Amino acid sequence: MPQEKTRVDVVDIGCDLDGAVTRIMDAGGVGDIIRDRPDECYIKVNAIDFKPYVYTSLDVTASVIDYCKRAGARRVFLMDNSTQSNFTRLVFEIAGFRGLAAEHGAKPLYLDEGREAKIRLPHMGYDVRVSKRVKHIIEHRDCVTYINVPKLKTHSMTVMTAGIKNQYGFVAHRDRSLDHNFNLHRKLADVYSVIQPDFTLVDGSIVTIYGHYPLETLHEKTLVPLNILVGGRDTVAVDTVCARILGYDVDEIRHLAEARDMGLGCANLDSIKVKGEPLSRFNQKYPYQLYDAFPRDVAVIHGTDQNCPEGCNTNTLAVLQMLYLDFNGKGDFTIIMGKGFDRKQIDAIEGRVLIAGPCAYDETAERLIDRLGRSRVSFTRECNDLASTAGALAKLMKVSPRKMVPLNLLKSARLLAQARLHGSKARIPRLIR
Predict the structure, then answer these.
(1) pTM reported for the whole predicted model
(2) 190 burial class (0-12, 13-18, 19+ CB within 10 angstroms)?
């Protein structure tokens, strides 16, 4: 008897978002799961930042909360841990998740706040810290419901972000830089090996391309209104379908291939029953690399031996591009990243310089500081230390952090004080501490 195929639904939202959410979650038996475990229902959104189109749609999120409440969930928690250089309480406030939760009867969980616990990543061979709430979900999977609601985006470091990548938000900021390099793909899959949702619903209403951080200046080029939802019980299968929608094979999404090789789910389209919209509707390959628009007066020197796109390369360039295009940041400095440099090229650098990451620091920092002076040399010493990178580039480009946060200073300071009072361990730039 042939084995039953894994089911993934691709639903066109049309003009009825609530109906689309209901159909896709009913097809996955989410209502039955909640009725079996009604006490606690956790919804993990993508809330890395508050800039438009970066985060999971508020309308999609509201429909998911309402569905869970109708199915009998007694307590619904809306959770995330924003990217480095942000703190979640601020992101939830500006993006609207805090108000949405209050309106729809959910409780916001800021995963950068409160007590932490360690979880073991078995394939990486070390522990990382997560919120005690996340550890609670892991230890009580048979008693609580966990729904993953990522936003479908291309990603300059991982090609795509959907269900598996969304769970990297569980890892505490101070443990994200570890192996945020060529090892990132395996680490993402390993986090998924430890905690897996009951259902993943991917928000494909407006997909973002040219990286994962659509700049407001480039919205005409980076936003693709597909108006779909993708959902299923097997997140690996859901991500496989999402990869196909964006035009990619599984082996081009390395964390997805790692999850497949770990035996964590179905990554073979031939073994997935795709219901709803036919995949033949999606016939483009959307670009994941950053759009080519950078300040001409910033020289970027790449090492020849190692220059990880998952680490110090693309996020540094993404912040550079954001400050340049969206905030009119100034240039006239040099960025060094990777390792394996021509010493003559390093010795020819004049003026201000940012050394991005441990490889470049170990090879060039002492020489540059001795020659140029400490005041002219900024640096980060961890892989993808986004908080320090954002702080250094904001200073170099003369962009005030106040300009980057669309709240008045008093309210921002109050939110930060509340976050610190509740034990936030978010890593944010020194300039806004």
Answers:
(1) 0.96
(2) buried
